Amino acid sequence: MRKLWMYFVILFLSNYSYAQDTSVVYKGMTVTLDEVTVQAKRIGFDVNSFIKRVEDDTTFYRAFKNLRLLGYISDNDIRIYNKKGQIQAFLKSQIQQNMQGRCHTMKVLEENVGGDFYTSKGEYNYYTAELYANLFFTKGTVCADASGEIPEKSGGSMAKHKTQLKKLIFNPGKPVKGVPIVGGKVAIFDPEVRRFYDFSIKSEDYLNVSCYVFSAIAKKNLNIIDRGDVVINELITYFNKENFEIVGRKYSLSYKTLLFDFNVRMNVQMTKQQGLLIPALVTYDGTWDVPFKKRETAVFIAKFHDFKGE
């Protein structure tokens, strides 16, 4: 009887220990762990340090700037849809970027365009297309600094707005100064924002790489007021277990006010080239409506390949 009693005590304690081990508290937020991560934690995986790394990580944004430091070929597919879900304008092209030192030029290898993608003056007729071009296209010879940053030729509100949009899109989870209403609501690690999310870490293979997956997903049971403060619906990042480099990221952002609204989903897959972390695939599916502009619904796919150094 005594042995049986001890067996139940040990079983209870082991189950209790496991239950206690399935989550960690980091800066006041609870992060749920899957079974594989729990086992990794028991043999030395420092979960808190990993979360700190996620919080401070800037390599995702840096990876996009690294595109300016290598030669490559890009396949570009941009489609603009009308209210009926039909393609209203499109651009399909293949572009080659060539490097000379830190300066690069682009050559259009193929281009197929339709609808009113361009204005009569040859300018982009859609802001989504203009933003895409600002991110991935350049004209003439353009030189970047060692970090891949390109000085804006023109100052003013438009250049500042584009920089803010880049940070909002390619550095999700961090506050964006100067963006009214939305800027602070994307800072998912801030105390006032993180309470809206369920956080978790799990182990998963992604693109044939063994990864730790950090997820921040908006709680389903938020009241109407709190739900109105959520901008990032989900942010899922895949980190290589061996070196903690980002392998990929999926995220969804949306917001709606009387003045503007947007709903965007993005997926980014990374590759390592010439010692640099580089986007290999970027997909975008989104709609937005702002004052003095027509609603735009667009899908784009950008693929990067055939990377070369100088």
Describe the protein in words.
The protein has a 13-stranded mixed sheet. It is globular. The protein is built from eight helices and 13 strands. With about 300 residues, it is of the alpha+beta class. The chain has helices at about 1-20, 35-40, 45-55, 60-65, 125-135, 155-170, 190-195, 225, and strands at about 25, 30-35, 70-80, 85-100, 105-115, 140-145, 195-205, 210-220, 230-240, 245-255, 260-275, 275-290, 295-310. The termini are far apart.
Number of beta strands: 13
Kindly report the average pLDDT value. Answer: 86
Question: Span from first to last CA?
Answer: 77 Å
Q: What share of residues is helical?
A: 25-40%
Radius of gyration: 23 Å
Uncertain runs are 6-19
> Shape, please?
globular
User: Order of strands across the biggest sheet?
Assistant: 1-2-7-8-9-10-11-12-13-3-4-5-6
- Most strands sheet: 13 strands, mixed
Q: Summarize the helix and strand pattern as letters.
A: HEEHHHEEEHEHHEEHEEEEE
Helix/strand structural class: alpha+beta
Taken as a percent bin, the fraction of beta residues is: 35-45%
Count the DSSP helices: 8
Could you name the key traits of this structure?
single chain; 310 residues; alpha+beta; 13-stranded mixed sheet; 8 helices; globular
Task: Briefly say what this structure is.
The chain is 25% helix and 42% strand.
Layout of helices and strands, plus pairs?
Layout: H1 2-21, E1 23-26, E2 29-33, H2 35-42, H3 47-56, H4 59-66, E3 71-81, E4 87-100, E5 103-115, H5 127-136, E6 142-143, H6 156-170, H7 191-194, E7 197-206, E8 209-218, H8 224-227, E9 232-240, E10 246-256, E11 261-273, E12 276-289, E13 296-308
Parallel strand pairs: 2-7
Antiparallel strand pairs: 1-2, 3-4, 3-13, 4-5, 5-6, 7-8, 8-9, 9-10, 10-11, 11-12, 12-13
